[in-house]
Amino acid sequence: MCTCITYQTDEFYFGRNLDLEYSFGEQIVITPRNYRFPFEGNEDGQNHFAMIGMANITDHYPLYAEAANEKGLCMAGLNFPENAVYHEETTGKENIASYEIIPWILRRFSNAEDAAEYLRKVVVTGKAFAETMPPAPLHWMLADRKTCYVIEPMKDGLHIYQNPYGVLTNNPPFPFHMENVKQYLNVTSESPTNQFCKELDLKPFGQGLGSFGLPGDFSPASRFVKAVFLRWNSVSSKGKYGDVTQFFHILDGVGMVRGSVRTEEGRNDITTYSCCISPEQGVYYCKTYENYQIQAVDMFKEDLSGMELIAYQMPENQSICWRNKET
């Protein structure tokens, strides 16, 4: 369960809620230009674009959940169970393991259009990173300032859709979401007018009735619709961090509260973390379920010509700003 969005004012932003019932060892990770990726295809993984995102580092390899590169291209993987199908390696084709697709794309492409065109020619394989780490069933959102795509590996091949909504959640496949959102054409952020009966003097009895019928449950379809509504009706406040603050409020609108969604195993799905990336500024903002204070890492303040990964641990406990003496 996850929700990914883009957001654009004068700046371009990309980010997501990662909804999961456990931590996967996530850290904010910067991959500098000369870190060597040991790609399965034995392609030279050095001398590439730098990138920043949330990843688990295993055997010195950054397994990114989402990331952005220094040119402004962003990519995130979201859960896509039962629909995601990876294929066997095909001779004469570019074969990419699912776990390496984010760094593979971000290291070499500066815009989403070129990356999407390249992906139309590749085979996404199900090769595992390790025996104890089987491939996760995923689909991906790929975006830059100008355009956004959804990439879905399915039984009949790799599907690439242009995404005019700038939003992605989980199942069903993306064509369903594009049709489903049309059921909510009557929803508005404006105060509603009387369409019920012109002969009756009917007026709204409170604010917000224009959005009556907007779904509020935690299913992927409902989160998609609500995230689209919030994203496209969003208005940022003025100030340096107005856009970033607004971005997190949008994600909060589709976030999961512990106890509201229980898995079949009896675990509680939560929004483990929410992130907002300003790729053109090279800044990754993040807050976790246990700590609502926004953390930030600026990629361009690091030595991006290096060869070693740069990682920042996320705080585990809440940070409270006391305005008087703490008791």
Write the layout of secondary structure elements.
Layout lengths: L1 E7 L3 E9 L6 E5 L19 E8 L2 E9 L4 E6 L14 E4 L3 H6 L5 H8 L2 E4 L12 E6 L4 E7 L2 E6 L4 E2 L5 H7 L39 H14 L8 H11 L17 E9 L4 E6 L6 E4 L11 E4 L14
- Report how far apart the termini are: 39 Å
The tally of beta strands, per DSSP, is 16
Strand content: 25-35%
Q: Compute the CA-based radius of gyration.
A: 21 Å
| Shape annotation | globular
Number of helices: 5
Structure characterization notes:
This protein is an alpha+beta fold. Helix content is 14%, strand content 29%. The strands form three sheets. Strands 11-10-9-6-5-4-3-16 form an eight-stranded antiparallel sheet. Strands 12-1-2-13-14-15 form a six-stranded antiparallel sheet, covered by helices on one side. A two-stranded parallel ribbon has the order 7-8.
Offer a quick outline of the entry:
The protein is an alpha+beta fold.
List keywords for this structure.
eight-stranded antiparallel beta sheet; 5 helices; alpha+beta; single chain; 327 residues
